[in-house]
Amino acid sequence: MLYSLFTYDCVAFQHDTSIVKSAGNTTVIGLISNGDESEYRREVEKLLKWCQNMQVFLLNAAKKEEMGPKKSDTSRKNKWLSIEKKKEIIDKIERGGPLFFDSSLGIFYIHQSYQQLEQIDLDLMPHPKDNTVTGEWIHREGYCSMYEECGKNPTVDSSLLPAIVPCVRNEPAPTISGLHLTQLKNLCPMFDIENGTARACCSLQQLNTLQISLSLSKPILSRCPSCLDNFVNIYCQNICSPDQSLHINITKTFSANVSGDIKDAVLEFEAFYGKKFAEESFDSCKNVRLPATGGYAIEAMCGKYGSSFCTAQRWLDFQGDVSNGLAPLKIDYRLIDSNTSFSNGINPYNRPAWKCNEPSSSDGEACSCQDCVQSCPVISPPPSPQPPFQIGNVDGVLVICILIFCLFFTVALSVRIYWCFSKHQPKKKKLQQELTEKDVTWSDRASLATQQFLGRIFQKWGVMVSSYPITVILITSVIVIVLSVGMVFISLTTDPVELWSAPNSRARIEKDFHDANFNPFFRTNQLILTVKNRSGYTYDSPFFGSQNFSGLITKDILLELLDLQTKIYNIVVWSEKYQMNVTLKDVCYAPLNPRNPNTTDCCVNSLMQYFQNNKTLFDMTAPQGDSVVDWRDHFIYCVNSPLSFKDNTKLGLSCMADYGAPVFPFLAVGGYEDEKYTEAEALILTFSLNNFLRNTNEYEYALLWEKQFLEVVKAYQQDPSSNFTIAYMAERSLEDEINRTTLEDIPIFAISYLVIFVYIALTLGKYSSCGRLLIDSKLTLALGGIMVVLWSVLAAMGFYAYIGVPSSLIILEVVPFLVLAVGADNIFIFVLELQKDDRKPNETHEQQIGRVLSTVAPSMLLCSISESVCFFLGALTKMPAVKSFALYAALAVIFDFLLQMSAFVALVSLDTRRQENLRLDLCCCAKKKSSKKPPKTDGFLLSIMRDYYAPFLLHGITRFIVIILFVLMFCAGIYFMVNVKVGLNQEMAMPTDSYMLDYFAFLYKYFEVGVPTYFVTKGKYNFSALEGMEGVCSSVGCNNNSMTQIIQYATQFPESSYLAIPASSWVDDFIDWLNPSSRCCRLYSFGPNADKFCPATSKEFACSKKCMTSNSNGIIRPSAEEFYTYLPLFLSDRPTLECSKGGLGAYDSSVTFQNESVGATRFMAYHTPLSNSQEFTAALKAVRELTDYITKTMRMMPGTDPDFEVFAYTITYVYYEQYLTIVEEGLFNIGLCLIPTFVVCCILLGMDLRSGLLNLLTIIMIVVDTVGVMTLWDIDYNAVALINLVTAVGISVEFVSHMTRSFALSIKDNKVERAKEATANMGSAVFAGVAMTNLPGIIVLAFAKAQLIQVFFFRMNLIITLLGVAHGLIFLPVLLSYCGPNINKAVLLELQKEKKNKMELGISNKGFEDNTAKKTMEDIYENIADETTDKESQRTTAKI
Predict the structure, then answer these.
(1) How far apart are CA 1185 and CA 1181, in angstroms?
(2) Which end of the chain, N or C, is more open, meaning fewer C-beta atoms within 10 Å of its C-beta?
(3) Whole-number pLDDT of residue 77
(4) CA-to-CA distance for 820 and 823, rounded, in angstroms?
(5) Any residues with CB less than 8 A from the CB of 1037 and at least 6 apart, and which?
(6) What is the average per-residue pLDDT within 206-221?
(7) Across the chain, how many H-helices and E-strands are there?
(8) Which DSSP helix (H) or strand (E) runs through 250?
């Protein structure tokens, strides 16, 4: 038979029976031998009689019949249960276990962790009458005010522990000895007592009850012995002090029936304490931490005030408040000043309290720094951030830039004035007529030789390709197709981690280590909800006073929240692949029941969890004084004390979530100030899912559930009846939105390419009349040029797919655009040069194409090699996205050049034939009968550039102004460049119409806590050794420089450490869990499970043996054997009210084991709220500095592996790590890109160092000015920007290299004239082929949805193109006119030789000079190449 009673004072009288009592259970065990039940029956009868005297009504579950009060009892009206109600209660018994009933209260209970499950008002008997204490009362040293137990407090409606009250006894304190004395010494060691003279005002039974009551508080206060001893001392003074009457004054009693005797029992009393003692005791406890939450223990011990508003008075008032579920009776604590005296003998207890920085015993230790501020060493604040470089009060860089510009301007102006007023006039230089071999430098010879070699090679190549165009096109097509087939093997990377974090980067290695040991960070699915046009109101709480509430915290809104929450709870989605329904419990994170969770085990945080998501509990009201309390009072209580199992209001509801953990207010509401949670502007609803590995079935389940989650929320958002404005996200949202916008913006890029195609098609043609429109048009040729670009991209992608280099969507979008930008000018330069050229007598069109190609191909080769080498060197970066982009771009540029030299030249040959045969474009089968060949014209753009632009630009005054303006722009660019922001905010990756933008805006506006971060230990560390434990923990006896203590120090400076909440520590909670003063680590003392572990959830009487024994100093440290025996049990022990230190949920996934020892572990802390990439990056940098110091400290512990390390991990670090080094890496990459542009230019121009340096200078100015404009246009510097800057170097080569080469090849009389010629001839081609090709396509990108495209491709490419045009067509010609290379003397020597040869043939000097004046350097190279070819032909003929 099992009887469950709230009592402790019944004992067995029969020899073969016993009554076993534990907590709230009383079990009668009787020996029945040979069918003799007499002793057992007599014991039952006595128990029944006792129950009747105590007015306790029992139901016998086995017999299913009632045993009730005597019918002769006429003091009340009997009410018997109906048959239907009997069946209902019996069903509860069969389902839930023993059910018990208290007739004094009319309440049924099912025993389950002391939680009240159902209350039925039967009105079986009235409450006993309260008696106010009157008359004389002895308050004297050595006297008690109360003694022994008098049963249950009849005024307590519900309690987490039995509310047993003492009896009134104003007599001398009785002497105690034996077991009674031993128990008193163990429980109240602060009493100075000796055997024989020991007195106390508490019975042994009271000590046992006190021990059970204190066992709830000891686990959370034992970290700080001084605090614990002060706390215990207060209870010991109240209950057991031999001088109890001096500070205890009973104010209310009632008559209690104790085993048939009527006794006065205490209902209320006053406890008088000195204010100094009380405040010192409170001060010793107020900073004691709860390692599992990072909060304070006092938060759970101060009721509605929490830790923020708790004081000594409020702390003690909570201890004496019966509504807290723990206090058995009301205690009115009176804190008295030292100068106050009483006439009735009251003498407040005011002995010194133990300070937390002092040991409470002779062999004890002071509390640690983490639990006691006074124990902390003096911590110097971190050094202030290095101030910005300043000169005086002005930015130092700005001052330097201004000084440099002023100096340059002064020098330039002085030189200009000198030239203006000087009598010296520059003479027109003429070609030198008499040169010898000694006058020609080696560089001039090298330049000539290089041009001769390249011209000869390309001329032969051009003739061959144009002679067999169909064959060349077929061969190139086959090669491209073979390479493009590799696209079937292409691997597209869409995971942001894979894109932006290098596999061998520190953050990536740390992430992989964390995920391999602890599983990936759980998946977050979150809603942030607000309402519009809802005014706030004031609520007069009977419990809290007047409180301001926002219009959001109203009953109808919260019920709507519950409705939405229920819809999400009930999501069921069918998996076609796995033929099963997926529900929340299949994928949710269930910390306290991870193996077989129910829906209520899922970690869901919301305000409605304060009511366990139960509408009935939310609707509850209860009288409180003269008013009524409702959900608002419970809400206020819970946000201030979220760890409470029962609030202090008459509602008596728990604040714990239905899944068994607390919901901290910053997880439920947002948008409040100074912890005014009732004025919150947002509700937060979070569903946490397990983050399964990507290659598992469960990962796909999670994706399915999240997809349905998004659809449910979207549908709810669109419901017109909803009051909410919802911002939401799922874990998959970021990747989904990036992929969506990429696919949606592909048409934008396609339109951009189409616009470029139309431009090329219209401008390539040279139209003379409407009759020849279709003959002179170049639509087919333009389409061929576009196809060459696409072929080059497909070939590059196919090649890399063959060898396993992954691609990305950004490559699909950007690389074709880039190759088109850098390749279109080659098309223009070649075609326009061919259109200008006059075919020589007896020259075939194939020979003409070869000759023209020999003049332009070296320039094309120069640009292509510079760009491809630039991109290949850019692939040395560590960032995967930039690396893959650079590889694909480099190879695509090479393929583009090769295809232009082959397929496009072949197309030009075919188009030339078509045009000469008067065949129509797009329809070559059609032929016009006859047409007059149009005369050669220079074209509109060339004429404008030659006749107007070049003379204006290169005028003396204009040149001076241009140099000054561009130097000013360069200095401004340097200043703005050093002030560019580094980073990429998450919202920038989203399209402009993404729901994630609203979520990020709400997140930064309303969220009041930062992301969690884990401090992970990696490598061998001896956690089981004494030094190892104390090098990690932060409770009493731990090293003041331990890991968790160092993290605590950092949280004191959140503005520099970016840490807000200290790290939770499994080591600390494990030590507290082992503490024998708690009811946590217990073993079975007898029975079949003797000496085996007894979990905290077990209520068995046999669980009475402690895992460890107490010691005098209160410091618990397990041996290595005990450490590894009990640690797994701790990690699997579920926390309960009696033992809140169980590790299940908080730490079970935070410790791994390797080779029977502790492997990797982690400790969770919280960052401060971080709202932009600069803060995320600064937080990462700060936490790495912290972990490096911790690693260095812990490596000093004996037995620690030299490779042991501690690192910090959170999900965002892999994205922001790049910004720690991106500036240096960007400078390195761009520097590498600049080197080949200089080297290749020098080599291909025949070691022309000056041309190479001028190219380099101009490109540097373009890049610097680009970064400067980025600052002005609010474009942050990041990996995407770096891609564009690398691209800028490549495109800049197109703007400057053609112009520089054209200038170097010119043989005009002086540099100004050579600059004019280069500007007119090559500038027009560059403007038409590069600038005007890019701009139309770039403008189209402004209409893209993706912000990344708008900002980093539209804005940046527009900046690059405009600055490239400005520097290439304005600055560079002026610079060349001042500093350009001199005329190549080797060429002049060749001219001189040619002159002599022709003079020998009788050609007049005048005619020669006239012809020479019209020659260009290209003509000379052509003649040289022709002569070389003719000589080779003659030699071949001679051999034949």
Answers:
(1) 6
(2) C
(3) 37
(4) 5
(5) 365, 368, 1030, 1113, 1115, 1117
(6) 89
(7) 48, 40
(8) strand 248-258
| Whether the Cβ atoms of residue 370 and residue 1048 lie closer than 8 Å to each other | yes
Q: Report how far apart the first and last C-alpha atoms of the chain are (Å, whole number).
A: 126
Distances (CA, A) of 1142 to 1043, 1116, 1164: 22, 17, 17
* Residue showing tokens 């077990």: 1098
Per DSSP, the three-state class of 701 is helix
What digits encode the pLDDT tens for the residues 1105-1159? 999 987 777 788 999 999 999 999 999 999 888 888 899 988 989 999 988 889 9
Q: How far is CA 347 from CA 234, 247, 271, 338, in A?
A: 15, 6, 10, 10
Over residues 451-458, the mean pLDDT reads: 86
DSSP string, 1256-1310: HHHHHHHHHHHHHHHHHTT--BSHHHHHHHHHHHHHHHHHHHHHHHHHHH---SS
pLDDT in tens, 984-1034: 888 888 888 899 999 999 999 998 888 899 999 999 999 999 999 999 999
What number of CA atoms fall less than 13 Å from residue 204's CA on the CB side?
Answer: 10
555/553 Cα distance (integer angstroms): 7
The structure tokens 């819809």 sit at 567
pTM of the model: 0.78
State whether the Cα torsion 1272-1278-1280-1283 is positive or negative. positive
Tell me if residue 1398 falls in helix, strand or coil.
helix
The identity of residue 462, as a single letter, is G
Query: Could you report the per-residue pLDDT of 1235-1277, keeping only the tens digit for each?
Result: 877 887 777 666 678 888 998 999 999 999 999 999 999 999 9
| Cα gap 317→310, rounded to integer Å | 10
Span 905-933, mean pLDDT? 78
The band of 1330, judged by pLDDT with boundaries at 50, 70 and 90, is confident
Find how far residue 1219's CA is from the centre of its chain: 14
Model confidence at 33, pLDDT cuts 50, 70, 90, reads: low
Phi then psi for 1249, rounded to 5 degrees? -65, -40
What is the rounded CA–CA span in Å between residue 1048 and residue 1045?
Answer: 5
| DSSP assignment letter at 936 | P
Residues with Cβ within 8 Å of 869's Cβ and at least 6 positions away in sequence, in order, are 890, 1236, 1240
DSSP E strands, 45-163? 58-60, 65-67, 99-102, 107-110, 130-132, 146-152
Contact 628, 621 (CB under 8 A): yes
Residue 933 pLDDT grade (very low, low, confident, very high; cuts 50, 70, 90): low
| Range scoring the smallest mean pLDDT among 379-383, 409-413, 1033-1037, 1432-1436 | 1432-1436
**Pairing verdict, β 807-808 and 492-493:** parallel
User: pLDDT, tens digit, for every residue of 690-725?
Assistant: 988 888 899 999 999 999 999 999 999 999 999 999
Using the structure block, give the residue that is written with the tokens 């797919």.
801
| Range scoring the smallest mean pLDDT among 143-152, 282-291, 374-383, 894-903 | 374-383
Distance CA 1283, CA 1285 (A): 5
More confident position, 431 or 1245: 1245
The contacts of residue 294 (CB under 8 Å, 6+ apart) are 1061, 1062, 1063, 1064, 1165, 1166
Q: Round to whole Å and give the CA distance between 1414 and 1408.
A: 10
Tell me the pLDDT band of 66, cut-offs 50, 70 and 90.
very low
Alpha helices by DSSP H, 900-992:
905-916, 940-944, 950-953, 956-977
6: which residues sit within 8 A by CB, 6+ positions away?
Answer: 24, 100, 102, 152, 162, 163, 164
Is residue 138 a contact partner of residue 245, using CB atoms and an 8 Å limit?
yes
